[in-house]
Specification:
alpha+beta, Chloramphenicol Acetyltransferase, seven-stranded mixed β-sheet, six-stranded mixed β-sheet, transferase, acyltransferase, acyltransferase activity
């Protein structure tokens, strides 16, 4: 089946419902924003409507109006980078966000995707078309309405101003406003806000290696597939992990779902690499660690908006491949990296310590990424445990939430399944490697392909 037949009903630049106060007109970036990729983060929320009668009562004007109201709280989303060389601040000038409404000539998304030849390409069609440039909107929203009343809300947000926590907070605030007609009234201590992080961790002049452009087109060489680890499969994987009586950390003895799945993916990829290259290579698995709730040297920033995470990587030397071949070996490497990083974060006595740790880890990660011809480096991202499935705009909670992969880097993206117990993964690999990944016995026995017809 070919591409989705989408008709654009309207496209506009949507401005906040009220002007941003003068004292908030310039948002300085934090160090974490400065190190974030210069690209859009994507997410797609998919909804069924219980009945046609309920579909008739939905006001798309209300959806648009509630977004304009929500933008008053998330005012940087409506701003722009300055046209000068200032790339370390956002001009919160209320220029607005890209807002598109479409009609999709298909009955519903699951039916279409069950027959689609290229799922990722089809999902990309449900997102607004935007190029990440200084003059571009920082947020884009596309509301797609299917023939049977199903709705897919595609969102692109500049990674420079938002991490997963920020995006989840924004979407749930928008949904709450649309559903109730009012924004949430948190107490002052829990009010999500911008600007806290840049006060403590300001951007600085840094000599950094250039990160490859994650929006560049890589052609057909890298392909993307989707798989699901259900709760039983994850529990069975846990049972294969050998009990290590010397381990003194619950992260190793009782690894989380995310650690188990990430470790299995890494194990399989190292085997594929060794077979392809006819010898073992140094290998690293990179991932982000959220700072929220982990810093003792600064005031609580549990609800700070913006980027607030640090990059870390687990490393396997080529000489250790023969001695580290079981799943629990990879679980130990990942778990120890997370533990050691969290210990270093907890021991930090100042914001300068945290800043230095963040920059050093980021440099190490980019340097490894740039050594792709000499070693293997895989990037993983986990959006598990965020309240994606709580976003109710008035027609119920979503039946499926997913990021949409651009296939720029080799690695995996993890999100919860709707029940919160399983994990869906989006894997991007070179085509030949993907063929081997799909037929690996551990992947075959632990995962299923995402069954779009079973949503409901």
């Amino acid at each position: 089946m070919g591409k989705l037949d989408i008709e654009i009903q309207s496209r506009k630049i949507l401005k906040p419902s009220a002007s941003t106060p003068d004292n908030l007109r310039r948002l300085k970036l934090s160090l974490f924003d400065q190190l974030a990729p210069r690209s859009y983060v994507t997410i797609l929320f998919n909804y069924y409507l219980p009945s046609s009668s309920e579909h008739e009562t939905i006001s798309y004007d209300k959806l648009e109006k509630s977004l304009a109201e929500t933008l008053t709280k998330f005012y940087p989303f409506s701003g722009r980078f300055g046209e000068d060389d200032d790339q370390l601040s956002i001009h919160c000038n209320d220029e607005g966000v890209e807002y598109v409404q479409t009609k999709v000539n298909a009955d519903d998304l699951p039916e279409y995707l069950g027959q689609a030849n290229n799922i990722e390409s089809s999902l990309l069609d449900l997102l607004p078309i935007m190029v990440h440039m200084p003059s571009s909107p920082l947020l884009g929203v596309q509301v797609n309405v299917f023939n049977n009343g199903g709705i897919a809300i595609g969102i692109k947000v500049s990674h420079i101003i938002a991490d997963a926590f920020t995006i989840a907070t924004f979407v749930n605030e928008w949904a709450h406003t649309c559903l109730t007609g009012t924004m949430t009234q948190d107490n002052n201590n829990n009010l999500p806000s911008f600007g806290q992080l840049s006060l403590l961790f300001p951007a600085r002049v840094l000599q950094l290696p250039s990160l490859p452009n994650s929006t560049s087109t890589t052609g057909p060489e890298i392909v993307t597939r989707r798989f699901v680890f259900d709760a039983l499969a994850i529990e069975n994987l846990r049972k294969t992990i050998k009990d290590d009586s010397t381990a003194d950390d619950d992260m190793i003895k009782q690894p989380s779902r995310v650690v188990v799945v990430m470790s299995l993916i890494w194990k399989v990829l190292t085997h594929i690499s060794s077979a392809k290259n006819e010898n073992s290579r140094n290998s690293s698995l990179g991932f982000a660690i959220n700072f929220r709730g982990k810093l003792s040297c600064v005031p609580s920033l549990e609800h700070a908006l913006g980027n607030y995470a640090m990059f870390a990587s687990a490393n396997l030397e080529a000489s250790d491949h023969s001695r580290k071949d079981e799943l629990n070996d990879f679980v130990k490497l990942v778990g120890n990296t997370i533990r050691d990083t969290c210990v270093a974060i907890g021991k930090a006595s100042s914001v300068d310590d945290i800043s230095s740790l963040t920059v050093n880890n980021w440099k190490k990660g980019v340097e490894k990424l740039l050594q792709g011809d000499k070693m293997d480096f895989y990037v993983t991202t986990s959006w598990c445990k965020f309240p994606w499935y709580e976003a109710d705009f008035g027609w119920g909670k979503p039946f499926w939430v997913t990021s949409v992969s651009f296939g720029a880097f080799e690695g995996a993206f993890l999100m919860d399944t709707k029940d919160g117990d399983g994990i869906q993964i989006i894997v991007s690999l070179k085509e030949n490697d993907m063929t081997e990944f799909e037929r690996d016995p551990h992947i075959l026995s632990s995962t299923s392909k995402l069954a779009f017809h079973s949503f409901g």
